[in-house]
Predict the structure.
Amino acid sequence: MAANEELSFHFDVDGNDFTSAGEASVKVKKLMRQLGFSPELTRRVAIAMYEGEINMVIHANGGTADMYVDEDMVRIVLADHGPGIKDIAAAMQEGFSTAPDNIRALGFGAGMGLPNMKNYSDEMNIDSTVGVGTTIELKFKVG
Amino acid sequence: MEVSRVAEILEAQVLTCSDFLDGEVCSACGSDMMSDVLAFVKHQGLLLTGLMNPQVIRTAMMMDMECIVFVRGKVPSEEMQLFAENSGIVMMTTKYSMFEACGRLYEAGLGR
């Protein structure tokens, strides 16, 4: 990759189909392998993004995921037009969840999504407005 | 431990990717909560679960896990089997419960 050259990739996350949630993260994982990133970084990016995708499907009827890559940083931006997060500090606590029981029956909604995204990334920024939507930026340092 | 040995210990039926039975796993995770798998798994290559939906396979892919064991004799749909086959993940089903399957593998030295 040439210096300062930024690559970008766009993915739509379908909110109507829980089965397909995570498809974009699988694509990102493949892309990062092809671009030669380390398995450890690739894994961290894919897991954090997968949690974000699941959240968008559970809470926000889908959204978009954009990936920006340069030689120093991998940046993932997840954006939705869902209900927004009322209390971000509460949502960041492990175990806090507003997911319905049918989602728990599918193996998610344990209140680990946002904490996981924070733990696996180097920086996480949440911009959320109730009734408007949520945008989450995840940054991962390369190397 | 070789994946083939896991199948032997659990008397399991291998459903997908039988070419990959010579793969090695050094530890395992037993959970029906994929959120917890995503939070706590480090280098466990084997997932034991009673949960039955395609997100189990996607979770395993994210965590670089090689093998999924379905407990209590559960058999995934053909669609799920095809998904795992195409993703290079060994899937098997065992008659044992989660508790007994984990116990048998631990007793045999997995994760110790």
